[in-house]
Amino acid sequence: MPQNGSTQTIETLLKEKRTFKPSSQFQKNAHVPSFAKLQALSRAAAKSPEKFWADRAKDLLWMKPWKKTLVWKPPFAQWFVGGKINVSVNCLDRHLDGPRRNKAAIIWEGEPGDVRTLTYLQLHREVCRFANGLKALGVGSGDRVVIYMPLVPEAAVAMLACARIGATHSVVFGGFSTEALRDRINDAQAKAVITADGGWRKGAVVKLKDNVDAAVADCPSVQRVVVFKRTGNEVQWNAAKDVWWEDAVRGQSAVCPPAALDAEHPLFILYTSGSTGKPKGVVHSTGGYLTQVAMTCKWVFDLREDDTYWCTADIGWVTGHSYVVYGPLANGATTMMYEGGPLTPQPDRFWDMIERHRVTIFYTAPTAIRTFMRLGPEHPRRHDMSSLRLLGTVGEPINPEAWLWYHKNIGGGRCPIVDTWWQTETGAIMISPLPGATACKPGSATFPLPGISVAVVDKAGKEVPLGEGGYLVINKPWPSMLRTIYRDPERYKSQYFSQVPGVYFTGDGARRDKDGYFWVLGRVDDVINVAGHRLSTMEIESALVSHPAVAESAVVGRPDELKGQAITAFVTLQATQTPTPVLKDELCRHVAKAIGSIARPDEIRFTDALPKTRSGKIMRRLLREVAAGQGVKGDTTTLEDFSILTKLQSAEDE
Ligand code: ATP
Ligand code: MG
Hints:
This protein has 654 residues and is α/β, with parallel strands linked by helices. The chain folds into 3 domains: 408 residues, ANL, N-terminal domain (Rossmann fold); 69 residues, 3-Layer(aba) Sandwich (Rossmann fold); 123 residues, GMP Synthetase, Chain A, domain 3 (2-Layer Sandwich), CATH 3.30.300.30. The chain is built from 20 helices and 30 strands. A 7-stranded mixed β-sheet has the order 5-4-17-16-18-19-20, sandwiched between helices. Helix 7 packs across helix 8 and helix 10 crosses helix 11. The N terminus is likely disordered. Magnesium ion (MG) binds next to loops.
């Protein structure tokens, strides 16, 4: 919660008026083909959420039916209690009896350009053999396994193999350092680590095995390290612990009976990206998680049998879990995976891949879209991307200007955009348009999905009037919600259920406009207080980005004797622009004109890059420290590029 200010809500300034209705062409075949249908679903679900979710769960294959749909002992939820289920069966075995048997499950492209396709039958075989291999190494139900891999098909195989035998996986993003890896292995008390010799990133080999060696030296729980050969670089070998992937599966049977797991069995632990502080081990369930992930993947991305669906997230993030692996495979879809950097070898890598693989659905993050904006539309323009029919975004609020750029230059003006709001903690999408039903407003995630109950409230938990900003909360338990923080239920309670009475607090600010649309305003920790006005930094940033010279910006407050806080804006310019004092003045005037003089920046600092997490989110808490002229003291272990911070600080010393 914000430390400053006596007023309880957030003032909002940005007024985006443009709307984009779904085309009749798109609506014709959509799973949810009209707003009236969506509203009917939402009304029915609001009346009886348990019935709504039970109906969705029935789309999955259960080994034993559940007895009770929901047991809610606030703040702890259990869904589909008494039911037995296996995620790998739902993602694989279920599709083998029909025409999906030989359909591509995964189309993968490595950074050097190598391509592999695994059909459902082939993926099933790989998963079963590796699951048997894990068992032979002594891994069983209830054990924790850390996966620290490049984005290769074997990463998905490893996740599904854990799911098959009931081992709880914890994927650690391959870009994390040895220290971050060590802390996560130790917190999870992992028995085994699955890694690779290396992975390709921006034309170079990231030596994953070296990082694992250094980490496990301080991880007494780790008994075995499985190493997939990807890059062929030399590795150190500890014969007591290490085993090559190919040796682990050699001679293993392609039959592996799936464990019948409790619906509440922990499928995975995932440590949040840490935009705000010490990573938390978010624990997700099996039955409830898969129910909501499968349903949202089908409805939000309007998945059809012949789609080639590409979500660019790494499996190290929750988006990679829910919408690269589990969601699409549970729906029998074809999911595309790409190992490397988006600008390698050229800035048009993504567009080239879309053209070659005839991708139909493309889901990425605002940070990527802003990067592409900065590089210019000539890169996508070189490619035939007419196969695309739907676009999505996730991770941060998308500035309306970036939304419009995406719509025009990637979507050819014809593809709906689903702006999906959710969190590691929510497990699956919560607020999003449905592409055949919802009229979109650029920058708004629109409405909660059927079965999801959210509200914008003040500190006392009272709903604020339409048009006013406040705290985004979730009123009722949902199937894919986190169950706890691993080995720290007290932190689970205090983090999520103690700030606003009786409900789950998301940590985000939001407002609803007069039409009831939700606009996520970013983290409430980032709200600034200027002369008694509580302002969302995201709105000032969007105003800056709407100036043609600006590519990206981050706004923070710094202490100011007169106003409480003064507004500092860090600004990255378009590649073609040069920073000048005249431009600074112009940008200040531009913000004042676009959203009001109260939001006029007191200071603008040009910078080539902004400090971001490894998942690409701007770390405003570090910029606050820079703006205040203090040295940076906060946790920087999840920072993507430390040199950016050093540059920002030394620029200030000049
Ligand atoms: P940490 O919680 O460790 O600080 P994080 O919040 O960045 O890290 P995630 O769970 O990946 O980790 O991100 C969820 C957050 O991302 C949301 O709470 C919200 O602030 C932001 N977010 C995600 N999608 C959207 C969206 N479509 N619109 C606006 N904000 C979004
Ligand atoms: Mg968060």
